[in-house]
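[step 3/7] fold_predict: job queued, chain A
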Amino acid sequence: MTWILAHGIGGIRDLPVPRYVFYYGAAGVLVVSFAALAFLWRKPVLAERRNGRPLPQGLQRFLLSTPLQVVVGAISFALLVFLWLGALVGKNDSGVNFTPTFVYVYFWIFMPIAVVLFGNVWRVLDPWRAGARGLGWTLRRLGLWGEAPFDYPARLGRWPAAVLLMAFVTMELSFSNPSDPRAMALAIAIYSAVTWAGAAAFGSDAWFRNGDGFAVDFMLLSRISWFGRRDDGQLVVRTPFSGLSLSDSTPGTIAMVGVMLGSTFFDGFSRTSIWQNRYYNVQVDLIDRPSLADLVGQLMNLGGLLLCVAFVGIAFRLAVYGTESIAERRPLSQEFIDSLIPIAFVYVIAHYFSLLIYQGEVGVRLLSNPWGRNWDLFGTNDFQPNFTFLTPHTIWYVQVGALVIGHVAGLAVAHDRAVGLFQTPKMALWTQYPMLVLMVLFTVGGLWVLSQG
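[step 4/7] structure written:
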């Protein structure tokens, strides 16, 4: 891609202290936090605060009103069509075509931040949901469509969402040119066809609650937010992270979180010298056969991506197995899977926040000429991004802070569940040692990957 891949670390070798000090320091913070939780957090807190305090009724009526949802949905759907057309018929150059920047920066990086800050706003902004509901309403009014022909199988759970999200990150991380506008146009068309077929088969509510990759991804992340929606439909202000204090036995949830976390980990690992040297050697061996080199390179990246996703899932299951063995109680995966969601979010921040800032500035210029057709819709064609805004050291310190805070939050969420599940604080403490090991592993591993980029 032509944008700056600024989420890698390139200039931290002159830090005031060796890098291993950060690794030990981060691990030490987790251990101290674990001890503090054991002594200070002896009763479940988050579950009691999940229902929160309702927003003013007038504000709720406005935010939940059908006209607002219709207008926002129509705008969002129109934007999807515009971006797709831009990728399809605009200039086939990601340096001047706005669609790649919008998808990989404003959508893929900013939307997780938005749902954590404001709750699951994607439910209203989702253009695929809006398209499915709009078409369904029209066909029902014309008498051409009734109820969905199938009930969504409970055993499928979130597996379709995990597969669809995996398809997206596979294109992003393993395709030889993921920002190619024509390839993006095809990907958008395929994703739209699959998700609208799912909505037609099982109904919009069931499909977007379980089967759509982006809808499930952002829904899970929105559990972190201090804004939420109760089962009775009320919009509430609640304690941050209290939305994670629930038992989630939906099939495919571990796979879904594994894709969310493992894909970001692989994105960082694929930029390390270890991976780059092996990738380069493979490409050199096939230099006289470029098509085969591209194919082998893509398969190599896909294999690495699958291994990282599998690693997250297996590591979590081993930690939970340790907890189950200590507690002599199973299954417990559904009780602790949400403790990985804050980690998935801070991995997004640590890996991509500088890309959001830098390429987000470039997007200001691209916005005026979104199809690369020499337009100047908003007068920003001459906007000059400031690529010196962040120093490598600043990026590194933000990454360290984000990873440590996110893993401490994950520990706290797991601890809150434990003190609610087990009879005594002592038993809750013992059952959480495997989770502490898991959090230290993910923290140090994440810092090592970022420092090697």
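[step 5/7] annotate
The first strand starts at residue 53 and ends at 54.
Confidence is low (pLDDT under 50) at residues 1-13.
exit 0
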